[in-house]
Amino acid sequence: MKRLSKAVVIALVVVVLAACASVDDVVTREIMVEGGGEMETAVPPTTLPNTPTPTATPAPSRTPMPTDVPLPTLFATVTWTPEPSSTPWPTFTPIPTIDFNQQFTWTGIITVINQFTGLQVTWSPTRNEFAYIIHPKEGFTRIFFADTINFQPVDITPTELSPYINILWHPTGDYFFLSAEPIDIETYVWGSPYTWKIERVGPHMEYLGRGSYYWGWLNDELRVSERRIGTGIFSIGIFNVETDEGVASTHFDGRAKDVSPNYVVLNEEFGFSYNTSVAILAQEKISPQYFQAEFGTYVKFLSGKIDSERENRPFSRFADILPSTDQILATTWEEGIFAPLDLISGTVSANLQLWDVETDTLTMVAPGGIYGRYSSNGRYLVYLTPETDSPQLHLLDQTTGEILFTQSAFAEADRYSAEVKAYTTFSPNGRFLTFFNPDHELIIYNLENGEFLAPVTAVPTTPLWSPDGSRFVYQNPAAGLSIFDTHSATAYPLTISGSERLLDPQWSFDGTYLSVAVLQENWWEQETAVLQIP
């Protein structure tokens, strides 16, 4: 057989892309309804295209659910079948408590509630309980649930699963979704995950069928899914869990980044189009059909790109969302991929601008800005501008327009994504700002009295704040994972020895507990410890 010429191959690729473009406008069961491998059309409700975009409103607050409601200890026996079912699962023998190596010693003020084999702990957003995954040395992956009474695990594994597993709690904490690939490929279709809905009350599980990996929530009703479908291309969609309907989807040359009240915020990466642009995925058709087949009509670009034309709009990179609005903060610049992309050096002229999605207008926020983050109430903006030696960090009070201070800061740049990483944080209670200076010291600034606390030596990573904003976990280069308490302005390590074996700290929803992964002596197996910190 003769080889196809290069011209013929290119022509075939063009034909395939054109064919793909004709179906991008359809929301499919495979993407949005978590359905099977066949493309089963699920057209959005007919009222969507003519419905104006709703006015942005803050997400409704929720009163946390009580944390002292015990789970039943007895469950009826069930044989799992790939049919919808709400039958409770059986009780399994809990994993025995594991004794850590004697060389590993917790500090005296830490109480170890439980220790167990575990990986990928996912805490409930409203209760002190979690689901977690283990990968035994022999056998298939198992899923467990542990409640707040004593964190004794209960096996809820529905069938033999591969290690590729995704867990997403509903914002109310009443149930979570499990997305995984079964090992038995004779019974199941290989190539996309299967999904289950697991309710904590009862408890019981329901088999949902094939679908996508879960990413997060737009609100209590709309779930966001994301699944890689090619090199650098992801299937991203919005799904209504109340009506069991697909709302919107796109094949996107990039990833989901965040959510505003009405949109999923995306960022196009450098792909075959050699572009980078902030975009949004809407709940209705808002754009004409794009020339490039992966985008579709539910997507709108900050760049204004239509039919591969950029209309003289800038390249952009997502920075943040102005809280409780559909206005997106973005770093913008005119140069493309062939220009130097180290924004910190100042070789590319960039600005921080605010994109109003509704009016499709850009407002200058910080000329020369290359990075920006808002406080949780939107009052403060911390941003960076390039400088010869180190970038300059500025703290802006947006209510007065006053720059509260300017200092040299540490930041890193990714040449290929145009992303600047500065590891700044605002505490959840809005009282503190943290950032790193050029000497890698963690600087803590009190926003209420305008004073700096004594700097802390830390590895440049993003500190993990407790939900109430009273303390945070950080990485001390000498002592490992440590906690800084803002009330006493003191820091202390989690362990006396073995600190290099701790990783992946996660707070429970109210900050009562902290879970940490503990690497074993072979350095590839790990366990999990649930800690109580006064």
Structural class: mainly beta
Radius of gyration: 25 Å
Helix content: under 10%
Coarse morphology: globular
Q: Tell me the β content.
A: 35-45%
Number of helices: 2
Largest sheet: 5 strands, antiparallel
What is the average per-residue confidence, as pLDDT, rounded to a whole number?
A: 75
- Report the uncertain regions: 1-103, 306-310
Note down, in words, how this protein is organized.
The protein is mainly beta and 534 residues long. Residues 1-103 and 306-310 have low confidence and may be disordered.
Write the topology of this structure.
Blueprint: H1 6-21, H2 29-32, E1 105-106, E2 111-117, E3 119-123, E4 130-134, E5 142-146, E6 153-155, E7 161-169, E8 175-182, E9 194-199, E10 204-210, E11 214-217, E12 222-230, E13 233-240, E14 245-252, E15 254-259, E16 264-268, E17 277-281, E18 299-301, E19 315-321, E20 327-333, E21 350-356, E22 361-367, E23 371-374, E24 380-385, E25 392-397, E26 402-408, E27 412-414, E28 419-421, E29 425-426, E30 432-436, E31 441-446, E32 451-452, E33 456-457, E34 464-465, E35 471-476, E36 480-485, E37 490-493, E38 495-497, E39 502-507, E40 513-519, E41 526-532
Antiparallel strand pairs: 1-38, 2-41, 3-4, 4-5, 5-6, 7-8, 8-9, 9-10, 11-12, 12-13, 13-14, 15-16, 16-17, 17-18, 19-20, 20-21, 21-22, 23-24, 24-25, 25-26, 27-28, 29-30, 30-31, 31-32, 31-33, 34-35, 35-36, 36-37, 39-40, 40-41
